[in-house]
Structure to design on (522 residues):
């Protein structure tokens, strides 16, 4: 759907070659292959999952949507606390913050119980944290691997330039699987802003917890990445290792930090979350349906971009081509390109309603991506697409729902999901932009459930006018087209003639970025 523009890549690479300096990674031939454990039906989660699937799901997979950040953390915490054999985690970002440390403490405690923990993280967020990676890997039940790593002997900035088009291709997958019986897949990385713990930013995100045969497929995907030649064991990648005393001190500091948080506002908020209440009352209800796990193969990162047989999007194409009446898209980073606009136009011409929710300029945390998207807004509206942009502000009631955590002042869409004909749902890590399509690797699950799809579509319809701006394309007397943003402020209807809640300087900056030939990297 997108065309790659190589001009900027060539320019930057030429500059770097003149500057000198090339990355050289160590040999990665000594990594030991390992795989998801298969003898886990006798675990607690094995028994519980089998019982639910047989008595409630008539053999279908079971799903629990995790829309709230608090619920998403509670689900992971409960799964980690009760894990018996294995935990497999694959994430693009893992922050060193409150959520990151609390989750890490749970993982270490699981390892202390004898649970095997395999942690695979992309190297994008790991600068300056090598000692911690070695400390984790030193635990006999924890193995730490880094995907597509940077050379530790060179600065990252120079590698970004010299490796433009290679090190800029990242593992964006997000999955968390316990005992090969329960898995969580979706849009969240590990960090405060994804789990309602950041006072300045709250990502509106979505994960799905799943039981049944779908879990084995997520585990298979994890194994492919874990055993890939692009996954480096921490000890292979990092030469300088902390002393045993330093490692002990790191574990001690982690345990003390977690202990200090026991009575914190955030821990109290977790205990008061909706999912925590439902679990205590034993009222957690799953939705059942058939599911297919779709994912890029890890070789995508090191292969030509036209090797579409490796791509997730190739697996999704039949679902998009089969849409009959309605398509709802949630995509925080949305850059359709000309081919994407034509595709949506072909749908609307067949009578399909296409509704797209993405970030506004004010709510977007990556302005350059908004520059790539904004140039297609008029064309999308002309094509009959119903276009909505996220309102950056949380209402007082929304902040109250966070129960004393502090209340984030800004909301930003981060969920990546589609609803097809109110019959099927896609939930995963995939954005509708060139980076997700061609550069990074992604994962998601397609769920055939009219119950889930209808519920998500109805929630969209109920909330879309309250929480977003509806875009309208209008024409003046001189046939000049311009966009109006219709939304609400303090309960009153408002209309903006420019991107809401933005300064002229920010809009000018985005206008400048629109002319840069960088769409293939957005």
């Amino acid at each position: 759907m997108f065309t790659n523009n190589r001009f900027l890549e060539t320019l930057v690479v030429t500059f770097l070659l003149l500057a000198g300096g090339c990355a050289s990674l160590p040999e990665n031939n000594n990594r030991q292959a390992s795989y998801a454990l298969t003898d886990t039906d006798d675990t607690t989660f094995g028994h519980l999952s089998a019982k639910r699937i047989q008595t409630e799901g008539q053999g279908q997979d079971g799903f629990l949507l995790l829309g709230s950040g608090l619920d998403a953390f509670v689900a992971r915490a409960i799964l980690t606390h009760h894990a018996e054999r294995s935990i497999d985690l694959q994430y693009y970002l893992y922050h060193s913050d409150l959520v990151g440390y609390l989750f890490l403490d749970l993982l270490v405690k699981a390892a202390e119980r004898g649970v095997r923990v395999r942690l695979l993280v992309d190297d994008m967020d790991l600068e300056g944290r090598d000692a911690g990676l070695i400390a984790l890997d030193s635990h006999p039940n924890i193995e730490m691997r880094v995907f597509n790593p940077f050379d530790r002997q060179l600065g990252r900035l120079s590698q970004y330039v010299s490796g433009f088009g290679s090190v800029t291709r990242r593992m964006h997958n997000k999955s968390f699987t316990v005992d090969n019986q329960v898995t969580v897949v979706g849009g969240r990385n590990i960090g405060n802003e994804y789990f309602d713990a950041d006072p300045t930013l709250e990502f509106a995100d979505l994960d799905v917890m799943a039981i049944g045969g779908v879990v084995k497929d997520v585990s298979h995907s994890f194994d492919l990445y874990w055993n890939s030649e692009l996954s480096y064991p921490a000890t292979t990648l990092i030469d300088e290792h902390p002393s045993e005393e330093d490692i002990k001190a790191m574990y001690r500091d982690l345990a003390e930090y977690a202990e200090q948080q026991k009575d914190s506002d955030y821990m109290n908020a977790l205990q008061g979350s909706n999912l925590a209440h439902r679990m205590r009352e034993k009222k957690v209800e799953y939705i059942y349906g058939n599911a297919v796990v779709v994912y890029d193969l890890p070789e995508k990162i090191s292969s030509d971009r036209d090797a579409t047989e490796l791509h997730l999007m190739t697996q999704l194409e039949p679902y998009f081509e089969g849409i009959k009446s309605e398509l709802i898209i949630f995509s925080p980073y949305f850059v359709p390109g000309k081919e994407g606009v034509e595709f949506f136009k072909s749908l609307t011409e067949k009578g399909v309603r296409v509704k797209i929710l993405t970030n506004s300029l004010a709510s977007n945390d990556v302005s350059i991506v908004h520059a790539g998207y904004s140039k297609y807004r008029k064309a999308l509206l002309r094509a009959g697409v119903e276009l909505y942009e996220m309102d950056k502000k949380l209402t007082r009631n929304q902040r109250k729902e966070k129960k004393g955590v502090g209340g984030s002042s800004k909301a930003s869409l981060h969920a990546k999901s589609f609803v097809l004909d109110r019959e099927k749902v896609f939930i995963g890590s995939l954005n509708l932009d060139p980076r997700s399509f061609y550069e990074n690797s992604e994962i998601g699950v397609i769920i055939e459930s009219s119950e889930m799809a209808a519920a998500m579509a109805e929630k969209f319809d109920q909330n879309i006018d309250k929480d977003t701006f509806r875009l309208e394309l209008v024409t003046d007397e001189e046939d000049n087209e311009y966009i109006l943003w219709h939304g609400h402020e303090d309960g009153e209807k408002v209309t903006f003639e420019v991107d809401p809640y933005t300064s002229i300087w920010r809009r000018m900056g985005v206008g400048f970025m629109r002319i840069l030939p960088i769409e293939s990297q957005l």
